[in-house]
Amino acid sequence: MGIGCGGLLIVAIIAGAFIFGAAKRLYDETVSEFVKNPEKTVAEQVVKMNPDLEMLYEDDEAGEMTIRNTATGEETTISYQDLAKGKLTIKGEDGSLTQLGSADISVVPAWVPAYPTMSDPVIPYHQDKAGEIQGLLSFSTTDTPAEVVAFYESGMRGASQTSSSFANIGDLNTSSKTFKDGKKTLTISAQKSPTEPTQVQVSYQEMP
Asked: Which pLDDT belongs to residue 95?
């Protein structure tokens, strides 16, 4: 995991696949691709996560890809490394901005509880469009998945609806919980392997 923001981003993507019911085979294939070329794999997944982006072609020799902003038609050639590190802000037709891969966690809404022992935080995805805010915060911690979920349970105590899931996938221990409070939705997912810190993804959404 000692590979910085890109490493946390790919963990978030893999975890997201489990949240939405993907098979273990997808996890194995994604990890295999990541080991071969981590920056390319993260860059590809960043594009896939954003509906306003379309990948036109890749140049492995140059280590870069050309992408199109589907809202504006603008084409950009950017290195795998820069895209994996989130050095890209997308402007929509309506002037809205989508931020990818930033370590600036100040964009996270104030109502989202701030975890006290987070390390290496990164924002793989954040969008503020027409008053609708949604994004994903990823970080690591030495606490257990259960402790992480318990912290957010305390912070979101007033939520009107909650749902939980717990699973062990091989040596990976996972816990997740979703909180809904009016127009706000918060989903916590935490994974712990025997040899690595707990990886946490905080997905947030606030409707106008």
From this structure: 66
